[in-house]
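EI: anyone free to look at a 278-residue chain?
SC: sure, send it
EI:
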Amino acid sequence: MTFRTVLLSAALGAEIRGLDLSRPIDAPTVAALRAAWLEHLVLVFRGQALDVEAQARFARYFGDTSETQAPDERSMKHNPDRRVLLITNIRENGRPVGFLPDGELQFHSDSAFLDCPLMATVLYAVEIPDRGGETLFANAYRAYETLDAETKERLAGLRAFNIYDYATQVKSGTLERAGLPQAVHPVIRTHPETGRKAVYVNRLMTEEILDLPPADGAALLETLFAAIERPDCVYEHVWRKGDLIVWDNRCAQHARRDFPADQTRLMRRIGIAGDVPV
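SC: here you go
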């Protein structure tokens, strides 16, 4: 099989053209896709007609799928497949049938609050609003590389505390940590396949740097968040129905823009299991 690779921005991201992901892909093509993914961090496939099994088959080209859905009775009723997380604002009796239903989301790396965060995410657009809901992807390699030598030296060996509350989706001050998933990870992560360093703290989930006084840590986090959010580090994806995107959570972060509350947004997410960040 052959495909074309079209760059989407100078920062990161490439569109892959010429593949029908509803059918299996041969091993040489998978190897070429993985090489493109490691180079570009985010791969976009337009116009795909995929059921859950086809999406899961594609995800397995990158690694083992992860059970990402919380054992919630309401969500299980609408989506019993534990590999799939529904990202949607569809509601039943006023309650969301999936997760992350409304509004914008700040930059983050998926499941950074777990000891072994997702290595990658495969997201498929089932229904989209006619405007809004764009996903912004940031190159965390480039964010690290923009830092001055003194800051890089200061960051070496530092650790950060990550936590998130799916129930509220809002961090106001310090979260009550009891009962919430939480993990400590390096502030700067080394990618296990490329050997490159990337910023691995994020505005949505990182609460503090453990190895510094609170004020110093907060100031340093703001420096790192600003590096991630630099326009020259970001590609903004405008979704179309049938888009499939796979991104590398080890070196890319993403955020979501707001969208009209009266329009349906339904995305199917499958996560790829990862390892302990170092």
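EI: The chain has a mean pLDDT of 93.
SC: 👍
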